[in-house]
Please model this.
Amino acid sequence: MPERPERVGVFGGTFDPIHNGHIAVSVNVKHALALDRVLLVVANRPWQKVGWRVLTDARTRLAIVEAAVEGIEGVEASSIEIDRGGDSYMADTLEDLANALSAQLYLVLGTDVAAELDTWRRVEVIRDLATLALVDRPGSVAPALPGWRVESVVVPQLAIASTDLRSRAGAGLPLDGLVPPAAVREILDRGLYAESG
Model:
């Protein structure tokens, strides 16, 4: 009997910084869909955020994600978009993963982000290569996605936003309980977000 292909979740983001909400989504999607692993894909240059604000260096964000997921079985940081360089497009990432792995790919998205899929580059490639692992987000309704393979996943709702965390850090407020401890240490050691607003 042939081995089943690996089941891999792909959870892309800026992760500036990663927080406990990201971790909760990762471990709950992995469990709910019986995935072998979930890759937290750190964006190199997120095209949707260019010009909105200054981003923390991609390799620094990756190091913080690596610290955050250490010891969490089946949840891994991925540098695939950083290694490729340039703007980060999920279609390119899924193509690279499909070429490198013999795997069923599950793209982890919040319902709020899924509602904007039609604005993404080469969205038909994404639809062909991955099943959507759609996660409920407070205040948003799952969009109709005809032609897509969709698995809905309910996860604990943690109202944490990276924007708020940068502001907290800039104000000298603690991140403990909101960000994994190892990631908090990395943020403090690197002096990140000290002047964020």
Remarks:
- The CA atoms of residues 91 and 125 lie 6 Å apart.
- The chain has eight helices and six strands.
- The first strand starts at residue 6 and ends at 13.
